[in-house]
Amino acid sequence: MTESTALYDIPGPHARRRHLLYGLASTVVILALVGWILYLLFDTDQFTATKWSPFAYEGIQELLLRGLGNTLKAFAYASVLSLALGGILATGRLSEHRALRWVSTLLVEFFRAMPVLVMIFFIFVALKVQPLPALVAGLTLYNGSVLAEVFRTGIHAVARGQGEAAYALGMRKTQVMTYVLVPQAVRAMLPAIISQLVVALKDTSLGFLITYEEFLHAGKLIASNLDYDLPFIPVVLVISPIYIGMCMLLSWLATWVARRERHSPRTKAVDVAPAGPGTLLPGQQ
Questions:
Q1: What 3-state class would DSSP assign to 224?
Q2: pTM
Q3: What's the pLDDT tens digit per position in 34-68?
Q4: Would you state the torsion angle of the CA atoms of residues 140, 142, 143, 149, taken in this order, to the nearest 10 degrees?
Q5: Which residues of 6-30 are buried (b: 16+ CB within 10 A; e: fewer)?
């Protein structure tokens, strides 16, 4: 006999056999798709020694490493400045002053709606800014405005009674935000923050359009080299796993921070001593 729960019925022997067949069929389809892609790659001579030989040269390796370093540099600047700008704009949107709240809302909505590439090109071409500052500024304006909404939503997600209790204790608004609301909101906001930082990391690849020598720009130089028979696919197969690995590293970091926060002494339950006999009020016995 099969047991059921409030959410679903535990599958019986026929259902388990059917699920196994579905799994096997899906595996066969995926393997067939992978095999077809590999066949196309081999059929178009993408694994010939000529196309892969550039990666054996020290100059090519240094070019890729320099591009990777420039990508990480742009990401570091953009992530720190985006978090700072997001915090400033979120504070403005949560302000009690109407003028400051309206200005912050206008900036957030404008930069969220503006395409990142347009902002980068405007700063680079119209304002004649160097490639690295132009790229960082464009990423900061866009991601900072998105993070501002993440911060504001996270603050509003905290139970209303938390802030009311803090105000009842005589705390000022700055103290309520710093010691009560923000620490609780950060745990809820962390996945969204990391997701937006991943977007910023991937958008650093737009730097090659303004001649910033980042990782994708280095790969483009290699892929367009006629001496190596235009090794476009090998470059993609080398660069893509590195981008994916960096994004996965950010996700792992977020998981580690969240786990560390859960085990922090500040978030653990505190033993409270049992209530003892208190002073009797007049008229009580």
A1: coil
A2: 0.77
A3: 999 989 888 888 888 888 888 888 889 999 999 99
A4: 130
A5: eeeeeeeeeeeeeeeeeeeeeeeee
